[in-house]
């Protein structure tokens, strides 16, 4: 069966993305593609729209269409950011924004089973992969469970520090994920345009004694991060 011009165009674009152009390199202009393949610019735009929905390209107003970096996917296992990055051959890193003792407050207190006035340690970081910002992370831990935490280096995995220093192993968590839009400050930290989409992940993690030890609020770049889950339909349903 003869391929249509649209199919030939799409195959050409996929070949550029897969084999010729690297991440953040610019694709040919819509006008040039339309002339090369003898199609309308609307047809070119539709092909690029589909690639953008598949997160294979991204657009910058006034600059063109660029090859997107492959998204990092995370399953539903309870793993640290550092573990996720290393599994994918990326170098995890952190930019420390705050490390302080604060009152738990109502929301964090409820999550960790504390009174609002109880002391918690707040560690705020921008987490990076190969130097690129991936998420904004705010972690709260009961001060009584992790004495001296703020004196430790906080540029690596907190999960590793909890296990090696305090013999705390986090084994399960309650977690919610929802879509949000980044304000200007958050977008600047993640090096994306203001009002870009993001994933807000709120998690309360429990240790081997079933104590709530970590309350984490993380904002992930939606263009670089995705969550995967296997779901199974109950056997008794048709």
TrEMBL record:
Q: Which residues form the HTH gntR-type domain?
A: 2-70
Which SMART domains does this one have? HTH_GNTR (SM00345), UTRA (SM00866)
SUPFAM superfamilies (UniProt xref): Chorismate lyase-like, Winged helix' DNA-binding domain
Q: Which PROSITE patterns match?
A: HTH_GNTR
Q: Which UniProt keywords apply?
A: DNA-binding, Transcription, Transcription regulation
Name of the featured protein: GntR family transcriptional regulator
Supply the source organism for this entry.
Answer: Dactylosporangium darangshiense
Q: What is the phylogenetic placement of the source species in the record?
A: Bacteria, Bacillati, Actinomycetota, Actinomycetes, Micromonosporales
